[in-house]
Amino acid sequence: MGEEVKTLVPESLLKKRKRNEEWKLAKKQGLEAAKKKKAENRKLIFNRAKQYAKEYEAQLSFCLLFESYQCHAPYDKKDLATLRLRQFYGVFLSNTVGYSNLKSVRELIYKKGYGKLNKQRIELTDNEVIEQALGKFGIICVEDLIHEIMTVGPHFKEANNFLGPFQLKALLGGLNKKRNHYVE
């Protein structure tokens, strides 16, 4: 009567338990690695933002189109299409007359910024979207993107092409016509 009763467990169940434990361990290690990488990125982003604040210069302008795209001559339409401009859209341009300030560029990108990733328009809510698209150029966060745009850096073209045109709202009261006599 002192015999122990062994319960037999099917081999497939033992394999499944072992596989689940391995998956759980791999997932835990992956989460820890991602958490560590995110913490390092956070420190790096903060340090870069502090450094960038010292470097900004006026080399950038923001171009808007208020009037209708259809009322222009065909050669003007081609130029506007090259600049990715339609009615009430805006884009960044380098080395032109009239400069943007850092505050307006930052607000535009944070509030109205959309990126193009895999031919889709994606809102810039997470740094991972930017890192996925522009990580190979050293641009891993929104502040890096703002810096590259603002300083018209070496990867300005790639960063600007990643940003879609900014869709703006029409003016509240509409556009007023300026018809003044030359005396006025």
Automatic annotation (TrEMBL):
Keywords: Ribonucleoprotein, Ribosomal protein. GO terms for molecular function: RNA binding; structural constituent of ribosome. CDD domains: Ribosomal_L7_archeal_euk. One of its GO terms (cellular component) is cytosolic large ribosomal subunit. InterPro entries: Ribo_uL30_ferredoxin-like_sf, Ribosomal_uL30, Ribosomal_uL30_euk_arc, Ribosomal_uL30_N_euk. The keyword Cell membrane does not apply. Residues 9-59 form the Large ribosomal subunit protein uL30 N-terminal eukaryotes domain. GO terms for biological process: maturation of LSU-rRNA from tricistronic rRNA transcript (SSU-rRNA, 5.8S rRNA, LSU-rRNA). This is 60S ribosomal protein L7-4. The lineage of its organism: Eukaryota, Viridiplantae, Streptophyta, Embryophyta, Tracheophyta.
